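Researcher: Please translate sequence to structure tokens.
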Amino acid sequence: MLEYFIICLFALLASGLTFFSGFGLGTILLPVFALFFPLDISIALVAIVHFLNNLFKLSLIGRKADKKVVLKFGIPAIIAAFAGAYLLTILSETEALTSYNLAGKTFFITPLKLIIALLLFVFALFDIVPKLMKLNFDPKYLPLGGVLSGFFGGLSGHQGALRTAFLIRAGLSKEVFIGTGIMISVFIDISRLTVYAEDILKIRSEIDYSLLIAATLSAFVGAAVGNRILKKITIETLHRAVGIMLLLFSVLLAAGIV
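Model: Translation complete:
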């Protein structure tokens, strides 16, 4: 029962917290699942929970999504993600700049993670520094944002943070920003689950389906709470919340922790 309590608690809290940022659910849940299950099973379970939770969030606020932004940003992102993933297979042997041990684990600092961390750090400043908060991207740059988000996301797996960093500057209202990000995320989840499907089928007999259902329902509760809170916050508060999440994520990424 301990594993049920811990996993469901983190699923609820992470889903509520990441409802606004548009990224981070998988990053938070994977190490929690990995405490109790082998890594391959953990990755499969998190991918399923992530997808189902996004579908639930889509039912809550998906109608607010800007379809033009989804097409202009999402399609280039998905295509570029495959290019990034392909390049990853070529660069998989790239050596880390350095490594260190913490709490019995070894963390590696790579050039790629440092580059993306710096990019996210700069974007975070745009959501925290008052003068920079007034700046938005021209809509004509959305396809470029999609390409960069998808490419680096496919290369590093951190597409959600990059997607949020671009969309939050696109001049969207808070509901449209979140709905648009969720819709794009669903498309990306579908594309990656088609890749994971074969591996998931191989381990289907080892999956704890009752735990999977419990974690998913907990994530639904977190998303529902986040949706209620959304009605009470301003776009400025949302910008600051996203900025803080990006800042924290960039530090963890640069340190090789995520």
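Researcher: Any highlights?
Model: The longest helix spans residues 174-202.
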